[in-house]
User: Fold these one by one.
Assistant:
Number 1:
Amino acid sequence: MKVSAILGISQENLAILLQVSRSQFAMFELGKRSLPVPAMEKLATMLTYLKKETLKSEANKSISVDDQNYLKKLLLKNNH
């Protein structure tokens, strides 16, 4: 499953959050390219947050409203 699908946001928005190009992120999801270390750290933080929140609530396959709001706040924080 693609990382963007797990987080419930588009590749483009996730690339913006990670401060990489959409094509660079797409290549990462396909396993054809690495992300810069700062982008990997941000992605790890997002996935860790999601995992913690998922463990707190019932296991479900879709991202919760709280998680979506958290990601929207990150987008706003990055002025996008």
Number 2:
Amino acid sequence: ALAIEEDHPVGMAVGLNNSQGDGKAHLVAMWVASEQRGSGAAEALVEFIVSWARDVGAAVLQAGVMESNQRALAFYRRVGFELMSNYHTPRQTSIGHEVVLEMKI
């Protein structure tokens, strides 16, 4: 999904359907230009990915976020994602661990 304002991209989100058929889809990438943060663009992108995920038969949408990215974690929780009970993934980088959030759709 791409958010456009005055013919310029100001945000994007990418969803992937889980090929294992477990009813999960994944929000794997999201970006909103700094000048568009707080404009509703991020919420609209998530709504689009949720709609797409439902259309492909998913019951759950997951997203991974670096634990240190408190702004992103707060956003995802505000739009309906919750931390999974076992939320750390094996993925660790020099900036920390990735956590997994999930939204029942």
